[in-house]
């Protein structure tokens, strides 16, 4: 496998509450970017971590590109849109649980899949392509179809596809479309990293084993079901089982819990660890991340 990961999605300007009352601080984040950021810190330097997105040409878009480059994430596949800008979101916290306010309806990233050739070039020779349900949700139907076709072709050429369903109904026109397109994306994936609470709420899965079975029936090779600190179930071509007895943490901020878990799991597996050891490593990272404010927690890595 070529030692490269291409994370595909939307990075945005993030506003989070400052420790000083009445002030907000600016960052750059987004679910697939968060995972890329943690992967960059967890994997050796001979691994390339790239990001595929689209931003504008204004000051905040330039800040995002500069941030990626400064963090060691390759920016050669970050496109620039002269007519649309980077999206914005703000985080509000209450007892460690976050809520979001978004300004992204006209963001440049919604057009990241508009050019099929650009997608194909970015995926050429890539070892792993990583995306989420948010990546899929923000695209137009045509962009979504172009992304799926590019992933099909890349997978046929040896790229491994990793998918976190990250179900966000607010981003979709209706629940049926969300579930249908999530299943379509899952059918392209070698590894799926769902969260059971989401899958229960939107697919009606009675338990994590039902989530594992449903995604395996789509055609995925392996499924790891996150459970907010509870026992983690997994199944697929590389084996099935459950990892229990995981240390719990009282969350300060759960913003990047799943994104960091995904990075921790992938990094451990790519460095030779088995499934159960990788799950424990991923959980440990996520537990540290939720003990701090913000999506990108230097102290955790």
UniProtKB/TrEMBL annotation:
Keywords: Kinase, Transferase. Belongs to the carbohydrate kinase PfkB family. One of its GO terms (molecular function) is kinase activity. Residues 3-295 form the Carbohydrate kinase PfkB domain. PANTHER family: 2-DEHYDRO-3-DEOXYGLUCONOKINASE (PTHR43085:SF15), HEXOKINASE FAMILY MEMBER (PTHR43085). It holds the Pfam family PfkB. This is Sugar kinase. The lineage of its organism: Bacteria, Pseudomonadati, Pseudomonadota, Alphaproteobacteria, Rhodobacterales. The keyword Kinase applies.
